[in-house]
Request: fold
Amino acid sequence: MMSSRPINVLHVVGARPNFVKVAALMHAMAAKKKVFQQTLVHTGQHYDPLMSDIFFHQLEMPVPDIYLDVGSGTHAVQTALIMQRFESVVLDRKPDWVVVVGDVNSTLACALVCAKIGVRVAHVEAGLRSFDRGMPEEINRVLTDQVSDLLLTSEEIAQENLLREGIPSQKIHFVGNVMIDTLTRLLPLTEGRSVLRDLGLDVDKQVKPFVLVTLHRPSNVDDPSVLLEIASALSALAKNITVIFPVHPRTRERFAGLDQSMSLGQTQLIEALGYLDFLALERQAALVVTDSGGIQEETTFLGVPCLTVRPNTERPVTISQGTNRLVEPIAEKILAAAHLALEKTKTTPRKKPSLWDGHAAKRIVDVLRQENEAAEAGR
Reply:
């Protein structure tokens, strides 16, 4: 028998990729207002206004109900501060479910709080593995999955990873990719945006070929020698094609600390972009160079060639079925891979990954509802 009380769901966001995923969930739950009561908590892990506030507006998300204002810090400091501040929120709001997404510090911190006090956790994008324990995100993924009650996966191999780690199969549900839900919903809004014209890329309604770059991972931007290799590749690439680089705040700081004799050449460094402007560029790019997990997925869906400057990926479906290729942070290798991608006039036709169909959030809503009804019936 279904409870007459709405299911009390508390969503956690902290970093920009989380916003895109939670936006889809909140829209799907808002369509069932009598079934779900939603609270949105922003930990403040990403605190730059363009990286947070503009995203909320463009994704048509409500203003967060609670803002924890943790800001930056070491992994330990940030995780501990989120846990400390989030615990009182959970005790006060008494949610039926806390929904965490992705693999950032906010994800793990909030999941741990819930595990300690007995509140059920649903992890969206569960089971993704790079098998690189040197990545802080990998630690967050593995530990979050171990303490979560419901594991909602975005690609089929994720279930194999979870079963291998001892997660009971009844906790795992393959639902698809919620990031693609938001992309498909908002893609039409990128039409007619001025960003292409503003950057001189749209001439007489013809888009000039360009490469879009985004980098932020510590392994690429914190080591000056690695950053110099990447900068050298971009400088050489920019001699033959326009290179647009919206600079993440973290990356801008690292560039500022480099030897000024190093030049990015004709690479166009611009301010970080909101979701819609970035998506408008991404869909039109001849090539994307990134180290972002989410952008690997978006380019696969859009059919845009992507080079991921990393030795591994937790999203292997973007390689096996998508347009993504891994490349080492060595100038010559980046250039060779970029030229190969740009020379291809046709890409091999690839099917979109299973359940990347714009309806993942609806499946998650159904799973949460069924799980809650089962719990109510068992009381």
Remarks:
- The CA atoms of residues 40 and 65 lie 5 Å apart.
- The mean pLDDT is 92.
